[in-house]
Amino acid sequence: MSTKKRTVVFSVAWNLILLMAGAVVLAIGIKAIAIPHGFITGGFSGLSLLIYYVFKGLSPGIWYFVLNIPLFIAGWIFLSRRFFFYSLFGMVVLTVAIDLIPFTIPIHDKLLAALAAGALIGAGAGIYLHSFGSAGGSDIIAIILNQKYNVRIGRFFFYFNLVLFGISFGFMDIDLILFSLILSFVASQVADYFLSMFNQRKMVIIISDRSDSIAKAIFEKLNRGSTFLFGRGAYTGQRKKVIMTVVNNYQLKRLEEAVFHIDSDAFFITENTFNVIGKGFSRRKLY
Question: Is 225 found in the same domain as 171?
C-alpha cells in the first residue's frame, strides 16, 4: 500500500473512532443521567428530549433521528460529502447508543447529576468535534450558517439554546430547567477544554540583544522555527530584532532555559494560543 493510501485509510479510521467514541460518551451522559432526572440538554438532542417528555411515543433516539432528516438534506446541499457521511455515521451511532444503553448512573442529588451529565456530554462533543464530522443536530445548521453567512458558531448555539430553554418553561418544572441550564453550561466548558486540550500552544515573544544566537538555538535544540519582528526601544531608540515563536507546553521550559542560558537579561513573554494552523501544528479544518 502506498504512503498516500495508508494515510487516507488511517485518517478515515481515526475520524470514525473519534465519532464513535464521542457519540457513545455523549449518549451515556444523556441516557444514563439526563433522562432519568428529567433534564434537557442543549441543541437538537435537547429538543428531542423535550419532545420526548411532552409527547412520549417514540424513544429519544428515534426523535433525534427524525429531527435530523431535514438537517441532513440541507447538509447534503450546502456542505461537503465528506462532512455529510462522517456526520451521518456519528448521528446513527448516537441514535443507536441512546436507545441501547441499558443502565443508569445512580446519582441522587440533582445538582451533582447535572454536573456529571454536563461533563460527559461536553467530553463526548469535544471528542467527536476533533473529527471532520459531527453527531448531527444543531452542529450542521451552525456550520452551514458559518460558512455561508459568517455567523459565529458559538453565537448560533447561544441563541438556539436560549429559544429552546425559553420554550421549555411552558412544559417543564422551573427547577428542572435551571438544572438543565447548569448542565448545558458545564457541557460547553468541558467541550471547549477537550477541543483545546490537544491544540493549545504557547506563543513566545523574546526581546534580546542576542536574538540571532537565540533564534539559532530555537532551531537546533527545539527543532522549531522563529520569526524576527523589527522593533525599536522606546527609551533608547535602539533597533532590535524581536523573536516570535510558537511551541507546545512541553517545549516551553526547554525554550526558557535555552534563552536565558544565552542572555540572562532577555525579556520573555508567553501567551496562550488555542488554534495554531501551519506546518508542524494543526492543519486547516475544511468541512
Answer: no
Q: What is the pLDDT of residue 285?
A: 59
pLDDT at 39 over 90: yes
Query: Tell me: the pLDDT tens digits for 103-128?
Result: 999 999 999 999 999 999 999 988 98
Residue 21 shares a structural domain with residue 44: yes
- Residues near 231 by Cβ (< 8 Å), separated by ≥ 6? 207, 239, 240, 242
pLDDT at 30: 95
Q: According to the model, what pLDDT value does residue 118 have?
A: 94
- Over residues 57-69, mean pLDDT: 91
Looking at the predicted structure, is the pLDDT value of residue 213 above 70?
Answer: yes
Work out how many domains the chain is built from and give that number: 2
Amino acid at 211: S
Instruction: Give the CATH number of the domain where residue 243 resides.
Output: 3.30.70.120
DSSP string of the chain? --HHHHHHHHHHHHHHHHHHHHHHHHHHIIIIIIHHHT---SHHHHHHHHHHHHH-SS-HHHHHHHHHHHHHHHHHHHS-HHHHHHHHHHHHHHHHHHHH--------SHHHHHHHHHHHHHHHHHHHTTSSS--STHHHHHHHHHHHH---HHHHHHHHHHHHHHHHTTTS-HHHHHHHHHHHHHHHHHHHHHHHHTT-EEEEEEE-TTHHHHHHHHHHHH----EEEEEE-TTT--EEEEEEEEE-HHHHHHHHHHHHHH-TT-EEEEEEES--BSTTSBPP---
Q: Is the pTM of this model over 0.90?
A: no
